[in-house]
Design brief:
- With 258 residues, the chain is of the alpha+beta class.
- It is 45% helix and 21% strand.
- The protein is built from 8 helices and 12 strands.
- Strands 3-4-5-6-12-8 form a 6-stranded antiparallel β-sheet. Strands 1-2 form a two-stranded antiparallel ribbon. A two-stranded antiparallel sheet has the order 7-11.
- The chain is elongated and about 95 Å long.
């Protein structure tokens, strides 16, 4: 069997070389260098399209080379996507300077506890998610959906500076799941957040407008949003919460209740 293959490849090599030489001799009459290039091109083309025997049939070197190139390109793309995903998650982790330290003061209804921070600020801990929520911060804007950066800046400056962030929509879900609007003082849910699409690495604003506006606000076109900033306790993920952390049934229930 090995002898047959050796003979096959020798014959193929002789035919390929012969064709290359014939093309070279034919083209060199016009230009010697062009003849060399044409002969080499002809031989290379025959190598690529020459049938190669395999078990049960034939294949082509060109097809094999194409498949390898496609696999190589896919591996390069996968590594590139993985690097971008990792960078995107690192940016999310940078929202918080770290886990904020607190002293538990009193237990409230449900999963909630009142806590005090080293700065003396009062905040509220959701023991289930490990997230800590601030008191409402008012943001007045004429374009609620365009005020995302203003909302982020407001929370970034909340003391202690660097430990607070505007919540993601998944973190707003955690506040809703724990019935924060019902159990916390002020009876206010966070009115602004943003949706993090990890697959597409996109951030989209998410705003709950107040049910009614005062006459002055209606005339001026201004809207006042009550923001609650979020901090990360030791039990919360370093990047906070994303949509992927929530079961689809729970997410749909949250969306329907909004």
């Amino acid at each position: 069997m090995n002898t047959i293959f050796i003979v096959f490849y020798l014959v193929a090599l002789l035919i390929i070389l012969a064709c290359g030489v014939l093309v070279y001799r034919w083209v060199r009459r016009r230009h010697p260098l062009l003849g060399v290039l044409a002969g080499l091109f002809c031989s290379a083309l025959l190598v690529v399209i020459w049938p190669i025997p395999i078990h049960g049939g034939f294949t082509f070197l060109g097809a094999t080379m194409y498949d390898e190139l496609v696999d190589l390109w896919q591996r390069v793309e996968e590594k590139s996507v993985a690097r971008k995903d990792q960078h995107f998650l690192q940016e999310l982790e940078a929202r918080f300077a770290g886990a904020i330290q607190y002293e538990r003061v009193a237990a409230l209804a449900g999963d909630w506890s009142t806590v005090t921070l080293p700065s003396g600020t009062v905040a509220w801990l959701d023991n289930h998610s490990g997230l800590i929520w601030s008191e409402p911060q008012m943001l007045t804007t004429d374009n609620p959906l365009g005020a995302l950066e203003a909302g982020k800046a407001l929370c970034l400056e909340y003391k202690p500076v660097g430990y607070w962030a505007l919540p993601t929509e998944a973190e707003r879900y955690q506040f809703w799941r724990a019935a924060g609007q019902q159990h916390l003082p002020h009876k206010v849910a966070p009115a602004m957040g943003y949706i993090v699409d990890g697959d597409m690495r996109m951030v989209l604003p998410s705003v709950s407008l107040p049910p009614s506006r005062s006459a002055n606000n209606s005339k001026s076109g201004m809207t006042q949003l009550a923001l609650r900033c979020v901090a990360r306790g030791p039990a919360a993920p370093a990047r906070g919460y994303l949509r992927s952390d929530i079961a689809l049934t729970e997410w749909n229930r949250y969306q329907l209740a909004k």
